């Protein structure tokens, strides 16, 4: 699925959350800014919501509070305390009402009313709600990880009739009518339900009032897209294009013109500004900036949307030419047998952006890899950022990725066998000139 159309626009006024649209080359600054830390949001923050006015809401699980701050404010502008405990999710409607999970100890969902400044129970549940969503028809959805099910009830029903099943049988499994560890949920304007499943590493789509879902993201989808590892959050834009928290891969991914790609957290798990550690949920502001609950780092990270990445008039062309010959280095694929020739090229850029590499060669089959930091021919799977190869394209193929300014990358091109040699040219289009430097066997 493709998340990209034109530059981002504001969501419709009836929605309380932002659904930005982006161009095909949209990127976010890979270095996040810590807007609040453990002193404000407590240990292991999970739930965040940013409304169309750029008001940010975070549930502090440690102190059982809702922390609120406006836009660029450094300090919280409001803190709401209640008799809820250990909240896992939060949702805010257009009128300012706040729905918060209170299922762990008290088996309910509460609503803080903006009109009365009081909490009321609006849903009875049998466990915590790892995801909450209020659809446009005033139906409240709750995803119950423990019970492998999503339930719902109409907020216009004042008699608290039993919840209805929205998805899942209540028995964990991978069949089309089953769920295994549902977490984040999203309900679109057609009342179609999207569910991220931690246990099945997939995203399921349940069309309105249908009990059988379709896998739209994950290795078992009809058109395999990307492998997820316990996805925990999902957002759709107005065109139903997807952004997903890939929780145990410690990143946020989204679809583009050629499939899915990593958007932030693309440099492994950790505590650096360009890393995440067990992210759980996220939200956009109206400018397209991304706010992520970085759970194990006990912080909220803001990743700035780089709007100028959509201006194709700023693209700069770079060129590199070389040859793979019997004098080139030998490529160890299985650490025991010389398999092919390769060349390592150190490269870096001065402007973070989306870069497209067009590879032309005299060889019918060759491969290209981009590594972060270093390349070791004896451990070729380590530090791979992206790779591609010629599959019947007669010596021409593309590699497209985001490169970060002032980082060192290794571009590795390799033949398919020792008897394959020839000339190669690399044409790059991106936000800055690419500095190529041919080096020896290691970077």
Description:
The protein has two domains: 27-310, Neuraminidase, CATH 2.120.10.30; 315-438, Sandwich (Jelly Rolls), CATH 2.60.120.380. Helices cover 2% and strands 45% of the residues. It has two helices and 36 strands. The chain has helices at residues 38-41, 103-106; strands at residues 27-28, 33-36, 48-50, 55-60, 65-70, 78-81, 90-92, 98-102, 108-112, 119-124, 131-134, 139-144, 149-154, 164-167, 182-187, 193-197, 202-206, 214-217, 231-236, 242-246, 251-256, 259-264, 279-284, 290-294, 299-303, 305-306, 316-324, 329-332, 338-348, 353-361, 366-372, 384-389, 396-403, 409-415, 422-430, 435-438. Strands 28, 29, 31, 32, 34 and 36 form a six-stranded antiparallel β-sheet that branches. Strands 2-25-24-23 form a four-stranded antiparallel β-sheet. The protein has a four-stranded antiparallel β-sheet with strand order 3-4-5-6, with no helix packed on it. Strand 17 (202-206) and strand 18 (214-217) form a beta hairpin. It is elongated and about 80 Å long. This is Bulb-type lectin domain-containing protein.
């Amino acid at each position: 699925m493709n998340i990209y159309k034109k530059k981002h626009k504001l969501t419709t006024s009836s929605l309380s959350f932002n659904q930005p649209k982006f161009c095909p080359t949209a990127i976010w600054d890979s270095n996040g800014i810590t807007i609040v830390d453990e002193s404000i949001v407590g240990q292991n923050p999970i739930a965040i919501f940013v409304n169309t006015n750029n008001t940010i809401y975070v549930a502090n699980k440690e102190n059982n509070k809702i922390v609120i701050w406006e836009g660029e404010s450094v300090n919280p502008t409001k803190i709401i305390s209640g008799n809820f405990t250990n909240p896992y999710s939060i949702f805010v409607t257009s009128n300012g009402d706040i729905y918060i999970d209170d299922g762990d100890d008290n088996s309910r969902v509460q609503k803080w009313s903006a009109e009365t400044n009081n909490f009321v129970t609006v849903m009875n549940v049998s466990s915590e709600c790892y995801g909450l969503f209020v659809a446009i028809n005033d139906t409240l959805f709750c995803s119950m990880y423990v019970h492998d099910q999503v339930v719902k009830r109409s907020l216009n029903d004042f008699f608290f009739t039993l919840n209805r099943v929205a998805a899942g049988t209540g028995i964990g499994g991978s069949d089309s009518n089953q769920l295994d560890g549902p977490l984040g949920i999203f309900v679109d304007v057609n009342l179609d339900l999207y569910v991220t499943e931690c246990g099945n590493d997939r995203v399921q789509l349940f069309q309105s009032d249908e009990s059988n879902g379709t896998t739209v993201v994950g290795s078992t989808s009809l058109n395999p897209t990307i492998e997820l590892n316990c996805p925990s959050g999902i957002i759709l834009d107005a065109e139903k294009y997807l952004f997903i928290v890939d929780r145990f891969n410690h990143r946020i991914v989204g679809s583009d013109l050629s499939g899915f790609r990593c958007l932030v957290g693309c440099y492994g798990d950790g505590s650096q500004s360009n890393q995440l550690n067990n992210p759980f949920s996220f939200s956009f502001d109206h400018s397209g900036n991304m706010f992520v609950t970085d759970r194990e780092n006990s912080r909220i990270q803001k990743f700035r949307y780089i709007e100028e990445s959509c201006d194709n008039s700023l693209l700069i062309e770079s060129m590199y030419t070389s040859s793979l010959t019997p004098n080139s280095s030998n490529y160890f694929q299985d650490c025991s047998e010389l398999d092919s020739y390769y060349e390592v090229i150190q490269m870096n850029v001065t402007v973070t952006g989306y870069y497209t590499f067009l590879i032309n060669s005299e060889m019918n089959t060759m491969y290209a890899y981009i590594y972060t930091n270093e390349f070791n021919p004896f451990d070729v799977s380590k530090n791979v950022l992206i790779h591609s190869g010629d599959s019947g394209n007669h010596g021409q193929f593309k590699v497209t990725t985001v490169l970060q300014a002032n980082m060192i990358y290794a571009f590795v091109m390799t033949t398919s066998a020792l008897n394959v040699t020839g000339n190669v040219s690399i044409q790059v289009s991106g936000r800055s000139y690419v500095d190529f430097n041919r080096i020896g066997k290691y970077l």
